[in-house]
Design brief:
Blueprint lengths: L1 E6 L2 H12 L5 E6 L2 H4 L4 E3 L7 H10 L4 E4 L2 H5 L2 H7 L4 E2 L3 H8 L1 H10 L7 E4 L2 H11 L3 E5 L8 E4 L2 H12 L11 E5 L4 E10 L3 E3 L4 E2 L2 E3 L3 E4 L4 E4 L6 H21 L5 E10 L5 E7 L7 H6 L5 H10 L14 E9 L22 E5 L2 E3 L4 E3 L3 E9 L2 H12 L7 E2 L6 H7 L2
Parallel strand pairs: 1-2, 1-4, 2-3, 4-5
Antiparallel strand pairs: 6-9, 7-8, 7-9, 10-11, 10-16, 12-15, 13-14, 15-18, 16-17, 18-22, 18-23, 19-22, 20-21
Bound molecules: adenosine monophosphate (AMP) and glycine.
The site of glycine has 7 residues, from loops.
Length: 428
């Protein structure tokens, strides 16, 4: 099989690397890819933008690509799947209609209410006075979310009522997130521990991936401003076998059935961001229509099954295997190395050293990098994700940080405590 991966981040590096390792795959193209994908065996970068659907279709035809796998949410929400369907080409990812589960939080909340999927109680507003009344009635803590895509930053968890009202004001006026904030969802604060749960769906059924957990806040102890994700590990100990079964029965299966009965059968990766209550009850914090980033880096580092065949079977409707997927039993932990300043304005163009210092059972995934005049330089907020694999969380963590310690650039910054919750559970 010849595969095209759409996107240029760390998740796409992990997807391209995993697909290139699939026994059924002969060649992988990445559009546009990054310096990490460029250096993988069997992967070729092609300078086509992931949002230019006509150019992508043209590329697929020229290079005889059998299957396109889409990494980021933006092209999915914009309808890349429908575009490829119309061109008679195979594309793994949900349709524009189904991708609204990520593209509009209000739509996702209505969907969950309609299909009995557990989530925080909420209301949707376009009017400030009505939102303020609701916030004062519910009290704090309370959560305010911009309806549309905001690169993972459109959520304010407010400890005080006034903070929530200010957040709504900023969003509805268009100041905070442009058009993405002109409608807001206000929802109850959920207690518990978060987990990321990803599946492959073929429209009729779901195959779960190994669980994972990410760290969204910038600072140690999960404090500070939210980011796209500062690190992640797999498996997530909070997802015990009993919790796993509840997630499948209470969240994933109702979603598969609900999407089909709403006339938008869901094919592609589905990522459920969940809050697991102390009694093990899962509630949906968000749905994403793609793999998580950085969750994909540790999760795919553990995948032993053939990802390309799985994606192809989902698109062809030839049935997903009953026996599930095979996983490396070890723990994988990824630390995101960021550019100074991230998630606010950050530096770029700094020379990166230490990329070639291989360490067994570790892997460096590129996210925001570029080829500079004399080598690879920083070119994004989240620059690299360094994954370590080990027998247990402590050993995976040690390896990831050991590999990270040999990488340098001016004002490199990363959290030193990725995995702390799993570590605390492991030593209980
Ligand atoms: P989202 O983009 O919807 O995943 O939200 C970003 C982050 O905000 C989540 O990962 C949670 O840490 C937090 N969050 C979102 N909704 C809630 C909620 N209802 N209760 C508690 N925390 C939340
Ligand atoms: N790591 C969170 C996300 O991909 O949405």
């Amino acid at each position: 099989m010849r595969i095209l991966v759409v996107g240029s981040g760390g998740r796409e590096h992990a997807l391209a690397w995993t697909l290139a390792r699939s026994p059924s795959v002969e060649a992988v193209f990445a559009a546009p890819g990054n310096p990490g994908t460029a250096t993988e065996d069997n992967v070729t970068n092609v300078d086509v933008d992931g949002g230019d659907f006509d150019a992508l279709v043209d590329l697929v035809r020229r290079r005889d690509v059998d299957l396109t796998v889409v990494g980021p949410e933006a092209p999915l929400v914009d309808g890349i799947r429908d575009h490829f369907d119309a061109a008679g080409l195979k594309c793994f990812g949900p349709s524009k209609a189904a991708a609204r589960l990520e593209g509009s939080k209000a739509f996702a909340k209505e969907f969950m209410a309609r299909h009995g999927i557990p989530t925080a109680a909420s209301e949707t507003f376009t009017d400030l006075a009505a939102a303020e009344r609701y916030i004062r009635q519910r009290g704090a803590p309370i959560v305010v979310k911009a309806d549309g895509l905001a690169a993972g930053k459109g959520v304010v968890v407010a400890g005080e009522v006034d903070e929530a009202v200010d957040a709504v004001r900023g969003m509805l006026s268009g100041d905070s997130f442009g058009d993405a904030g002109r409608q807001v969802v206000v929802e109850d604060f959920l207690e518990g521990e978060e987990a990321s749960f990803t599946c492959v769906l073929d429209g009729e059924r779901a195959i779960p991936f190994a669980s994972s957990q990410d760290h969204k806040p910038r600072d140690e102890g999960d404090r500070g401003p939210n980011t796209g994700g500062m690190g992640a590990y797999s498996p997530a100990p909070v997802v015990t076998p009993a919790v796993h079964d509840r997630i499948m029965a209470e969240v994933v299966e109702p979603l598969v059935r609900g999407a089909a009965s709403d006339g938008m059968p869901y094919q592609g990766f589905l990522y459920a961001g969940l809050m697991i209550a102390p009694d093990g009850a899962p509630k949906v914090v968000e749905f994403n229509c793609r793999f998580g980033d950085p969750e994909a880096q540790p999760v795919l580092s553990r995948l032993r099954s053939d990802l390309a065949t799985l994606c192809l079977r989902a698109v062809d409707g030839t049935g997903l295997a009953d026996d599930g997927l095979e996983w490396d039993p070890r723990t994988a932990l990824g630390v995101v190395l960021t550019a100074g300043g991230y998630p606010l304005a950050y530096d770029s163009g700094d020379a990166i050293t230490g990329l070639d210092d291989d360490l067994p059972d570790s892997k460096v995934f590129h996210a925001g990098t570029a080829f500079g005049a004399t080598g690879i330089v920083t070119a994004g907020g989240r620059v690299l994700c360094v994954v370590g694999l080990g027998d247990g969380i402590a050993s995976a963590q040690r390896l990831a940080y050991q590999r990270a310690a040999s990488i340098h650039w001016r004002r490199i910054s990363y959290r030193r405590d990725i995995g702390f919750r799993a570590l605390a559970r492991a030593s209980d």
